[in-house]
Amino acid sequence: MLKFLKQVGDYAKEAVQSARYIGQGLSVTFDHMQRRPITVQYPYEKLIPGERFRGRIHYEFDKCIACEVCVRVCPINLPVVDWEMDKSTKKKKLKHYSIDFGVCIFCGNCVEYCPTNCLSMTEEYELATYDRHELNYDSVALGRLPYKVTDDPMVTPLRELVYLPKGVLEPHGVPADAPRAGSFPEDLVESGNG
Length: 194
Fold this sequence. Notes:
This protein is an alpha+beta fold. The chain is built from 5 helices and 7 strands; from the N terminus they run H-E-E-H-E-E-H-E-E-H-E-H. A hairpin with a 4-residue loop joins strand 3 and strand 4 (91-100).
């Protein structure tokens, strides 16, 4: 008899615990049902990337000294630097530079460690192609500056949720000069809170 009562008690505890877990899951669902949907109609509306967004790499051929630091710090040895030694000046002469964005993991190490700042990250994130060989950018393709989302007259630029004013969850209709919720890093340094 005691064994039967213990089984009934265990069953009741498990049923209560299961109901609690279902209630926790449904509370999250109901919480999301009360929020407004944040939908971006992609080809016609695009989000403005953040300040430190790591997009396609921009390369300046004239600044490069062919030191190959970018190759050494890259986790996958991705940039291809082709150079020859100029015997008259005893310096390296850069012949070719390329990066394959089909393999790149956009870690930003090459940009961070470049001694001449010839590499920089851009806001460009639309790199989709039908042929993977088109993702191998040479120094000419890397030298092209991307088209900014805010400059495109056919696209409505939307601010990301982080950059919306406090309490606003809908990016549509927010004026461009509305203050963002947080502070920029340089504002924190100036105020002495950083």
